[in-house]
Amino acid sequence: MRIHPLTGEFALPADETAFLVHQLPQTRALLGYTLVFCTLFYVAFSISDLAALGYGPTYLKLCAARAVVAATAGTCAWLAYHRPLSLHATRIAACVADVVALACFMFIAVLRPDEFHWHAMSLGIMLIVIYLFIPNSFSNALVLAWGATAVFLALTVTYGRLTAADDVTMVMLLVLANAFGALAARRFNQVSREEYQARVQLQHTAARDHLTGCFNRRYLHETLMRPGQVRAAEHGGLVTVVLCDIDHFKRINDTYGHASGDAVLRSFADLLRRMTRDGVDSVVRYGGEEFLAILPGTDLEGGIHLAERLRTRFADTSVLTDDGTEHVRTTASFGVACADPAADGGHHVLRDLIAIADKLMYDAKRGGRDRVHARCACANDAAGPGRERPRRAGLVNRR
Ligand SMILES: Nc1nc2c(ncn2[C@@H]2O[C@H](COP(=O)(O)OP(=O)(O)OP(=O)(O)O)[C@@H](O)[C@H]2O)c(=O)[nH]1
132 CA distance to ligand 1 centroid (A)? Predict the structure, then answer.
């Protein structure tokens, strides 16, 4: 997660999107409040139109312009606050409100040409608001602010009745507002992303086993086992769990040392993670040398297929001992269980499946190790819920 040094935003679009999605509720609230606040001031400033122009057609035109801004900003604020706007839509709403407000501001400036020095001050404040308070991307804010500055300076030259010294001061003032606005926005972007980075890092550390990088049991219990967490329907129906236990692991520790045992654990975990689907399946270090794979949208055959591939690949894998002098080889035993997560409203499906898989895995141990035992716990399964399915050559209870 690298932060871009110029914008203060994440350099990778995927990281930036994840951050923005995480921030979306606050972003929508900020956009809503800021637009309402700015609109109130924008409308209140019609008093200054009245003071400068008196009541008449020009004043009414300016009132109409301010009403357009109030209507646009009010609509955007209402949408941001009451509708579940997407990231993209929130940015469009921010840009539309900015563009309409700036366009009307230019119109007002042209109709009050004697006060360009005051308008410059107002624009300076509007630029700070665009950089800091209207949530947008750094590049959008930059384009809007510098675009408004260029248009305003062009209008000053065309309509303003200022001295050359006033023009220079005005340019300096607006450049200053842009520079400080951009620097402050960059710093704000950076600080909020650093905070997010720290939060993600903390969540990652709290959820993972530090030896293998797999999820830990706390994450299993607090997150994965929460009702509704396993949404197999998205992936087509059933959920399958595979419980894996490395065989004779104590012997490896006793023979080659604890560090070599750790290397075997890491090698098994790597294999398991490589063979499962990133972002769909979850791999948990369930105990010392026990691992659990949760496979949403996978039927029993799929679970057995994974366990079999894992079994054969692991049996063929040799891990170098800590001192690099010997190769350690061992096997693993597997319990595979499958169920329909919708069956009991999804409340205890994982807990029950893990219990079944655990029993099957111990059956595999008792049956001689290096084998896969499997069972479907689906209510509509031919063998009935919780009962072992008829043996299928090459699939169930296979070594
Ligand atoms: N190196 C290492 N060993 C661990 C770790 N966690 C647990 N162990 C060891 O794993 C071993 C598990 O031994 P057992 O439960 O007897 O299982 P086993 O020797 O694999 O026997 P079976 O499961 O019946 O094949 C114990 O000696 C634990 O000390 C760890 O993080 N690193």
Answer: 56
